[in-house]
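The methods section describes the discrete structure representation at length, but only in general terms. The central task, working out the structure tokens from the amino acid sequence alone, is never made concrete. Nothing conveys this as quickly as seeing an actual entry. For illustration, here is how one protein appears when written out as sequence plus structure tokens:
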Amino acid sequence: MKIRNILYVSLTSAMLLASASVSARDFRAADNQVKDYPTVLAMQAMGKQISEATKGKYDIKVYPNSMLGSGKDAIEQVKIGAIELTRVSTSEFNGIVPETLVLTFPFLFRNIEHFREVINGPLGEETLKAFEKYGWVGLCYYEAGARSLYANKPVRTLADAKGMKIRVQPSDVWVAIITVMGASATPIPYAEVYTALKTGLVDAAENNYPSYDTTKNWEAAPIYSETQHVMQLDVVVFSKKVWDTLSGEEQAIIRKAAKDSVPYYQKLWTDGQGTGIEGLPQETGRDFHRRRETR
């Protein structure tokens, strides 16, 4: 009898575990940044909140370092439901969701306050809603700072950039921006930038300082010129195909978790920005050229 009871308990436990494993689901999220980057940590926090709100039914597993492919690859996988969500630059959508184009224009915002006012206002919300027409659900934005140029020489004026081969994000807008500067635009996936700089495929690239730092692009392009030509905006999108299979309550939980992750992300981002630049040239051989303030 005792053996029978033990077998009964064991079988019952196994069935319960099997049932839990079938009902529980990890939403797979793609990111091209390193595992401790603010965007990755923010999506993990989003997943924790979703797990708590759904009592473990749903969670988010983030795959950093372009493990699931480039930004373009991730976008396509999300659309067909192969993975559930991704965080990418809005510029990745410029050729797919035309509403994102205006937020990519250079020298559009006066300062960070103006930038936040716009993306958190009617224009930002309308742009997020526009994604649904094309097969994605826009959940939230993560600000990604100002993008600047880095190379083996300072870039202080347009004349300094003339004739340079500069890596850009795969976007017609970015190709146009660099071409107008008199340089040659070379679209290359984010994960391949270091190699492109190291081998001389391109002379320069442009990004925010934390990305320049964490990818060690400074090893190949040690001079970072603070041109701040555009304020970068990232977006978290969910698969519309998967979204439509969820209940209204589940959708609301995911939307809330995404929105709640933004202030957490902003704190991580601001703290990282505060420690990223000052003092580094002397310690690492990098050279930092700050933009002159204009009145």
Notes: The chain has one domain: 2-266.
